[in-house]
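Input chain follows. Return structure tokens only.
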Amino acid sequence: MIKYLVNRYRGWGIAKKTLIILLFVSIVPVMVIEIITCIIAANTIKKQMDILVESNMKLSQKGLEDFFSEYDSIIMSIYTENEYALKLEKLNVWDSRNYYLLKKQLEEDLENISYLHPEILGIAVVTQKKECILYDSITNSTMDSYCFPEKDKSWLAVTDETFHNTQTVYSNVINREEANGTKRNIIYLGHRIADINNYRQGTVGSILICLDETNIRETYSQENESEFNVSFLCDANGSILSSTRADLIGTGIFEEWEDCKEELFSQPELKIRQAVEAHQIMNNGFYSIYTKPVLKNQFVLVSLRDYREPLKDFKYIFEVIILLTILIIITSILIMIQFAGSLQVCVEKITSAMDRAYKGDYTVQIEHTWRDEFGKIARHFNHMVQKIDQSGKMEKEALLREKNAELKALEAQINPHFLYNTLDAINWMAIENEQFLISKMLKNLGSILRYSVHKSNGVVSVRSELDYLKQYIFLQQQRFSFSFHCIMDVDEEVLDLKMHKLLFQPLIENAIIHGFPGDNGQDMLTVSIRKMGDKHLVVQVEDNGKGMEGELVRELNHYDYSSGTIEGSIGVRNVIMRIKYYYGEEGHFFIESNDRGTKITAEILFEE
């Protein structure tokens, strides 16, 4: 019975098969669909949340990297500006003559930096004697400082650390109150200052920058931060420098691992989860932890995401899915019946046209207005049968042209043989009359004629092509009474390489006929051939003649050899077309010309 049904199914058309399959799929039990959908939906929500959070974490990571890099750039500009080091050297030895002047200059420099970076709360330069030269943006003063107060010199700890560290030093968070009662969480960035021209002298001072913690928080905090989501930035000592929850700022959550700080970032999720649970940062265990290292593990960005919020409406989604599934099944049955009917019409049109083409009717075309895959099949079928029809006609024409060409070739074989014999007879007459120059010219002309006629599209050695060009140039020099000189500059290593014959003679002829006489003194023609890379020859034909018109140069450099739209410069056009036919995209041709001459460069493939 099953075998019978399978055979019946195989014998049906594609439209009927599609209808049966779609109907079968649509009546799958609602509960199965519901369970699968719920599982997929839950996993999808989690996956999408993971993707979104991961994407936001990458952006936050980059934002923090850029944030710290900006201040590193400010510090480096001061560190590499040797003027700061020189001033500090003098201040360290208490040069009384220039002390107040140097101090004033440094204060003005620091004020300018604060003006350019208004987010900086304060900036200071500290000497070896712990004397602080500063500018405070909170108080707008170089004396009274919120960032570097005299009564609380905890910031000097950062200075001490910079004197023994070549990298930028970051302090813990310090909570400080302004005169108006406003409290801020601030962080210090410090770096040593040394004379870059005299490293042996060591550190001459340090630079300190005071920042508001909110500036750091703005680079990674997200719009959806709430009681269910917490983000914070901690350092390698486990101290939280910045957080979206104010109560976490400045706390240390990794005291339990004080003896193994080096391993802190080797398994960040595990360590942080244990710390979060120990400090009860999240009120439940249904959350995920995401981490990103910052500044090569100097800091780690942590994001805790609770799944309760995005999944609380999932119950309503579950109920809606049941109702939608029932509605979709009923609607699908009606749509599938209509779809199967239209599908059958499309298939019958295509198969009918294919049957006609199979019988040899290549004029058949499928008339349609479809824009789907069936339309694409119909368009390709119409194009294919047109191509087949055109190919058949072109094949017949090609056979006819081939027969005509064979007849013309047989006729043409008579003429060169006659010319060779005639030139040979004239040559002997010239010798008998002691006209040896004429004899040499006739001999060269005969060689050129044989070379040109015999396998004109063949491949010869560079040496053979040069011999031919020398004979041709000799005849042209005789013709024009040696009004021009020619230089052949050819590398020895290319002489035995192979190339297509008669390729560059039109360029030489074009230079002699159209380029000379020039207005630059003695007319000179230079032909050079070089090997480039493992498979290319570069051939250059250069003259100092009158040059070519700029419009013609542009047209030839962008010549469409397949259309052949340029009427003039037949010889140059012939060379371009042959290069493209022989070498395709591996062949290149370029002209440079002005009133001092023309240089034509061609790049072709060679054969060993």
